[in-house]
Amino acid sequence: MNSTIAMITFRAMLGRRRALLLLGLPLVLLAMAAALRFTDLADLDTTATILQRLGIATLLPLLALIAGTGVIGPEIDDGQIMYVLTKPVPRQVIVLTKLVVAIVLVTVFATVPTLVAGLLMSGMTAQLAPAFAAGVLVGGIAYSAVFVALAVVSRNAVTIGLLYALVWESLLGNFAPGARSASIQQWALSVTDALTDASVVRSTVDLPLAVALLALVTAAGTALAVVRLRSLTVASAE
User: By CB atoms within 10 Å of each CB, which of 22, 143, 146, 200 scores lowest?
Assistant: First the structure.
């Protein structure tokens, strides 16, 4: 971690426009949870459905996309990253710092709201709220690594990320079992499934495999970002 890079990145990500993007979806989830709680409609099935469809399937990938691409993508696009690359800071430190910032943002704006929404709707029944929060957390780490790597590799990272999250995971995942299983969303849901007794939560991937794939994707995304960032320095020097 480099504290200076982290502070500058946090400041950029929490500027007015990006802060509104980060706050929008969590507020929708919390407002829906509060409405269901006060109308006495938040039974266990409803809570699980809301947290899965709005929390893991929508809130998590979109916020991770905003955070993961935002921590480094704009600096690459406008050339400011070269000022960082000229400093005596190892490239892996730069990537890890950016990744940690993205993970912290996802934790604050996705994991915590998911936990609060779950507690509002069903309390600690069947450990549903903390189970979904844990799923969002581990999924957020993997998503962040993937989207940071995409931001370093391509200027179209946001478009590619949206296609993955909305087309592969959501659209194709509803019709093709293979696509559903090969998704960060299902791997995160597997962690949730293991931590709750609620029968309404079911993942298509076994927990050991899901954990292994989450770790592999996180490591691969981080390594790819480091390698690509080193090539940016070489290209600049040439």
Answer: 200
